[in-house]
């Protein structure tokens, strides 16, 4: 093919704009019941061996961004441990099958990361099942839209903080002693850390905390050869949005206000995690990589 015949993907329409109908799922939500379906890279992600022989633990790995990351890691040559809630078994089984189809080892680890004891057990089982650990992705998240501060209950605040922040501390603390030089810790933050929506105060607060954790831990672990970074998604079409993550009336226009005019698909986030996990980013530490369709960020 000559240079003049080359074609390029237009990011505006590389994936169709999501115009989802109003819909509702009970917590924690399933990709299997999402309308329209999200592209998690099942057929669209192509690996190039950048993570060959690596061993990764991904939390929130059954659906959305976590599942896209797990699939991409396997296509890049990594073995993967999947952390997810027992209620998400249907989605997790599908992701596990895709990983096995790549000839990689997969370890399924259902449990609740709000449980401090489980976070330690999770890491130990991942290390045992994979034969070691050198990539950790803290991706499990809870997001519940609440219009007024007065309606934000202590229970919701506690569950959001434990899922998004405490679990990150607990899992990372348990994982680091197992991680050799060259390892990577990557956490999922959000554009909400910089531009918080009025109905996501607790969620946005946790994402700002993740950014601070990332920068501080990166300095602490740098001398040990362990790199710590984060990825900050913008609006991405996942089950998180249809459980209680967005006001139901806002769903039909989800992501339309981005400069690209559409929400992202989980597969579009996966390359950022692959980059930060790979040796290609060896001089990148304490970075928050924004993948948000063009929204303002620091």
Kindly list the characteristics that best describe this protein.
globular; 7 helices; Rossmann fold; 298 residues
Overview in brief:
By secondary structure, the protein is of the alpha/beta class. The protein is built from seven helices and seven strands, in the order βαβαβαβαβαβααβ.
Description:
- This protein is 34% helix and 12% strand.
- With 298 residues, it is an alpha/beta fold.
- The longest helix is centred in the middle third of the chain and has 22 residues, at 154-175.
- The chain starts with 54 loop residues before the first strand and ends in a 7-residue tail after the last strand.
State the low-pLDDT regions, or none.
none
User: Could you give the order of the helices and strands?
Assistant: EHEHEHEHEHEHHE
Treating each run of at least 4 consecutive H or I residues as one helix, how many helices?
Answer: 7
Measured between the Cα atoms of the first and last residue, the distance is 40 Å
Give the C-level CATH assignment. Alpha Beta
CATH topology tier name: Rossmann fold
Count of discrete domains = 1
| Structural class category | alpha/beta
Assembly context of the chains: single chain
Helix content: 25-40%
Biggest sheet: strands, sense, closure? Answer: 7 strands, parallel
Gross geometry: globular
Average of per-residue pLDDT values: 90
CATH architecture: 3-Layer(aba) Sandwich
Strand neighbour order, sheet with most strands: 3-2-1-4-5-6-7
So, the CATH homologous superfamily? NAD(P)-binding Rossmann-like Domain
């Amino acid at each position: 093919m000559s240079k003049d015949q080359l074609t390029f993907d237009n990011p505006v329409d590389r994936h169709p704009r999501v115009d989802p109908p109003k819909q509702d799922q009970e917590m924690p939500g399933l990709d299997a019941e999402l309308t329209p379906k999200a592209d998690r890279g099942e057929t669209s992600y192509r690996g190039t061996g950048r993570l060959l022989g690596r061993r990764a633990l991904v939390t929130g790995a059954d659906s959305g961004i976590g599942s896209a990351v797990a699939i991409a890691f396997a296509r890049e040559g990594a073995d993967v441990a999947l952390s997810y809630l027992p209620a998400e078994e249907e989605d997790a089984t599908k992701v596990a099958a895709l990983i096995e189809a790549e000839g990689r080892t997969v370890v399924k680890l259902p449990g609740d990361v709000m449980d401090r004891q489980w976070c330690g057990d999770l890491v130990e089982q991942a290390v045992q099942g994979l034969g070691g650990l050198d990539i950790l992705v803290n991706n499990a998240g809870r997001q519940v839209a609440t219009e007024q501060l007065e309606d934000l209950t202590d229970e919701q605040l506690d569950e959001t903080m434990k899922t998004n922040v405490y679990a990150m501390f607990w899992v990372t603390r348990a994982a680091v002693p197992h991680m050799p030089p060259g390892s990577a810790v990557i956490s999922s933050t959000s554009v909400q850390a910089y531009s918080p929506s009025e109905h996501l105060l607790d969620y946005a607060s946790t994402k700002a905390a993740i950014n601070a954790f990332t920068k501080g831990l990166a300095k602490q672990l740098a001398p040990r050869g362990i790199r710590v970074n984060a990825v900050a998604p913008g609006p991405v079409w996942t089950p998180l949005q249809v459980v209680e993550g967005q006001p139901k009336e806002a769903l039909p226009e989800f992501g339309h206000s981005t400069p690209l005019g559409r929400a992202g698909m989980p597969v579009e986030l996966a390359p950022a995690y692959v980059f930060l996990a790979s040796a290609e980013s060896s001089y990148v530490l304490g970075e928050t990589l924004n993948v948000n369709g063009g929204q303002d960020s620091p």
